# Entry
Amino acid sequence: MRAEIISVGTELLLGHTINTDAAHVGRALSALGMDLLQVHTVGDNAGRLEAALREALNCADVVITTGGLGPTDDDMTKETVARVLGAPLEEHKDSLRRLREYFGSRPIAANQLKQAWLPRGSTAFPNRAGTAPGCAVPGKPGQWVILLPGPPSELLPMLEDSVMPFLQRMGGAVIASFMVRTFGIGEGSAALRIADLTEGANPTVAPYASDAEMFVRVTAKAENAEAAEALAKPVVDAVRGRLGDVVYGVNVSGLEAVVVEQLRQHRRSLAIAESCTGGLLAKRITDQPGASEVFGYGLITYANEAKTRLLGVPEEQLACYGAVSPQVARSMAVGVRERYGADYGLGITGVAGPGGGTEEKPVGLVYVALSCSNAVWLRVLRPQGRYLGREWTRRLASSHALDMLRRHMAGLPVEAGWADGLPQD
# Structure
């Protein structure tokens, strides 16, 4: 099935709010094996919304709108959809009941009540995180317009609870979707290795890159879940076999989730010393459930004095080699492990930019070290062509640190080579 997304909100056009809704919906459609044709963004203007809606209905089987379902005058998505589809708004009794339950004994303003009015013939989607229900409105035979609230905290539960099951039923098939996640190979190299697998129609195999990682989604359709999984799993195994040990998991949330689980399984602890990443690595670890079992100390040692006082980095080493050096990265990893009683220590120091670089130590140069009781490993991240920004450099460095620890605990070589312009050891 073909789908289009229409994101509604002037704040999106002005850049005041990042359009994460389209990303969430796009990922959900991809997981269902649907083809996303276009994403439109329109302001709070009924005429422009109507034009975008009519254009989308000429091409797509499913049109999904996000935003514009609230109680204010500029929330006009339902009214516009009702007009375009010829489905007048009607009070939806169950939505009204839920709205009254939400407000309890508090008075409900008249404009709040309009949220319980839905286009005639709609299938309502309850909003367990807010007041505005979503709905699916039938268009011509086999066509639907799905209306979702704008706040991600409301949209995401509705997607999971109501929209995805609805679309699965409408598609007449059960979808099995697997995400193979990798770090250490570029999209081009990966695509060459799995080129023949991407030619299949069921399952489909689609590689794409994000945040210096490369993902491969395998999606199969069948009459039931068991049959869909049986179609997909041999292809997932083939992808893993072709890509090798750069694969760090299937249907996992990220490198940090894998590392925390490895630490828990091995009953090992981690301490971290960061300079240029400013606590990002520690944040990624502590975002994971169960992190407190394996992670006790995370230090941001920006200043040389902090590196010496808190980690034991020798002053003469800093004076001789500078804070951004392999020697200091190693000392940070060893110092944080030894001083704070952990099994593993990670140290990161570099020039995240955009300023501060020199000819000898350019912007983007980062040293990442991993220490255990009997060894220290180092990766050097050197700038590869165009500087991609401070956040990119910090994210990449933290991912390298996680990957080094992941590989060590899996019994793989830590100082691996890199392809497609990723940093070289």
